[in-house]
Structure formats: C-alpha cells, structure tokens
C-alpha cells in the first residue's frame, strides 16, 4: 500500500488510514502503542478501565510510542466526566466516542484542541454526528463485534448510504480483517477503516489466551447479535449466551438481563478466560482469523493484501 495522504491520515497525522478499534478488555497501552508504531492509529479502550487504570494506560502509551494515539470512550459506562477530565489532563489528542449522543463531549474536547470521531450504526445517526460537528464519523455495520445497532445494516449497505449523506471523513467498521476488505470499504466510499476483531487476536491484546485461541477456532454462524431491544451486542453462542436468550425469550425481564450481563461477565470471558460462563464479544469476521499474530504481522498482511487486490476484468 502506498502511504499517500488522505483525509483520515491528514486528520490524525498517521501513515495508514487504519484505526485499531477501542475494545473493552483488549485495547490497553500495549495494543494501542503497537498499532501506532506501525503507522496506524491505536486506541486505548476506556470502557473496561477504572479512571486510575486509564490514566496509567495513557502514561504507558506515551512512553511506548511517539506517534499519535487516542482513547475510545463508550458512553454507556459510569465515571464519564472523570474519564474525560483524565484525557484532557494527560494531553491525549484524539477521542473516539461511541454508544451515546455525539453532542455530549464533542465541543468540550474540540475547544481543548482534540480531534473527535463518533461511532454510529446508521445513516440517521451519522447525520446527527455531522450536525454535532465531529471531525470524523465511524460507520459500523451489523457484522461488527461488540455493541451494535438494532437495524442489522451491513457494512456493505451502510457505507455508501452514509457517504451519500455526509461530507465529513468517513471510517468504515465491521467485517474488516483483510486488506481486500479494507480496499472494498474504501471503494465504497470510506476514507479509512476501524478494525476490531482482527486486533483482538494479537499478541499485544490484553485479553486472555483462552479467548484469543477461541477466536481463531470460530466459524461462520458462531456469533449472534442478541439483546436487540436492550443493548444489542454480537457475541459467541456459548452457555452464557444461551442463558441470556432464555431470559430474554421468557419475557424480556430487563432487570434480570442487566444483572446477568453487567461488566463482570465480559471480564470473566474475555479477560479471565472462562469460555462458557463469560460474555465473548467478537465479529462475524472471526471466521477469517486463523492465527494469533503480533500487530506488526497483521499490518504487513493488511498492507500486502490491500496492494495485491486488483479489480477483476469483466
Ligand atoms: C471484543 C470487542 C470489544 C469491543 N469494545 C468496544 C468498546 O469498548 N467501545 C466501542 O466503541 N466499540 C467496541 N467494540 C466495537 C469495535 O470498536 C469495532 O467497531 C468493531 O469491532 C469493528 O468490527 P470488527 O470486529 O468486525 O472489526 C468492541 C468490539 C469487540 C470485538
């Protein structure tokens, strides 16, 4: 891949328009700094970090790379104001907000000189992002791992539609693990890509080895988007998933579901390695991930595949 500049590389002053998604229990300073050192944009995932843990991760990331990196702030977790305060105090330059209203923090952060991107799963919300004045929009399709939209719009359908309605730089997410998929997303109109699942199965990700190995064994159909009316999330169909579905189908007892979910189940699965009782978030693209690789290798594969992918004659 040629490292010519485009709107995303210019916005974040990076070499390649490849963003490593913020991911609870995966994206600490090791993963984020490794990605930034390869020329992409690494994001520390604040969603699974207490404020003091986030501060420590930011400080370690600053020591591990002199390249730009950012913090992902999912707005469904507590301590949000404290998290934002730490980001400002530590001099972070880029924030990706998600799972909330793009208006909440965009102006505050931009006034302090930060660049702000917001993650959405529909064109309607992408337009809201543009109205809120964000610097870039991440449009995430139904294939993606983790929390997701209710509308089941795939990346292939979402990107051209968002592109039609917004003028801000656009980042495609969901179902991208290969350079060919990256190129396809950019042909559809994206200026860059946000990649989650592929970076979850890397040496530098902070997740448990049981989980990383499990990712490499997953096949098509092994993940499912559940809890659509509550907090839609794509996860592996394991014992925990079956229990959740039972409660959900038995009458949508919201309290029981929230109790069953909590943050603890995600930690138990992805961070502590309990493959049956834990919540295991991953995208459909896991079916294409066969190896746990160092970030550097993921990058060299992505760039080579991107370069090698040519338009077929017809
Ligand atoms: C394990 C896991 C955890 C995630 N956690 C977060 C999160 O904390 N914040 C967020 O905005 N998105 C989160 N996501 C979604 C990713 O940021 C990203 O948009 C998505 O993974 C892209 O799709 P892909 O998995 O097909 O690459 C998570 C995804 C995964 C797989």
TrEMBL record:
Record has Flavoprotein as a keyword: yes
Database matches in InterPro entries: Aldolase_TIM, NMO
Top-level taxon of the source organism: Bacteria
Keywords, ordered alphabetically: Flavoprotein, FMN, Oxidoreductase
A molecular-function term among this protein's GO annotations: nitronate monooxygenase activity
Pfam families given in the database record: NMO (PF03060)
The keyword Flavoprotein belongs to this UniProt entry's keyword annotation: yes
PANTHER family the UniProt entry points to: 2-NITROPROPANE DIOXYGENASE, 2-NITROPROPANE DIOXYGENASE-LIKE PROTEIN
Full protein name: Enoyl-[acyl-carrier protein] reductase II
Organism listed in the record: Chryseobacterium soldanellicola
